[in-house]
Design goal:
This protein has one domain: SH3 type barrels (Roll). The chain is 0% helix and 45% strand. It has no helices and ten strands.
Length: 110
């Protein structure tokens, strides 16, 4: 289980994009995350008629290190650290592992 997952809203904590918020589009195995609207760069792209790509300068998002982002706590509106805990089982079901915010103990996954 990962602390940051696809679809989470995160805040960038360091670098030139510090303070920006966005939704996680993809989490890479290498320990990087792709965030919507954050870390945009201009890429010079050569045309490729086989793939149907036109040439020119395109804007695209580049991955950031997962250590440079924090999960956004909707209660406080700030980035927060995340931990794991097990919720008690109900009526014979196994215990569930869930993420929670360290500052207020609020459960992220419902």
């Amino acid at each position: 289980m990962q602390k940051i997952r696809k679809g989470d809203t995160v805040v960038v904590t360091t670098g030139r994009e510090k303070g920006k918020r966005g939704t996680v589009l993809r989490v890479f195995v290498s320990g990087k995350v792709l965030i919507e609207g954050v870390n945009r760069v201009k890429k010079h792209q050569r045309p490729n008629p086989v793939k149907g790509q036109t040439g020119g300068i395109i804007d695209k998002e580049m991955p950031l290190a997962i250590s440079n982002v924090m999960l956004l706590n909707p209660g406080t509106g700030k980035g927060d650290r995340v931990g794991f805990k097990f919720l008690e089982a109900q009526s014979g079901a196994p215990a569930r592992k869930v993420r929670f915010f360290k500052s207020n103990g609020e459960v992220v996954d419902v």
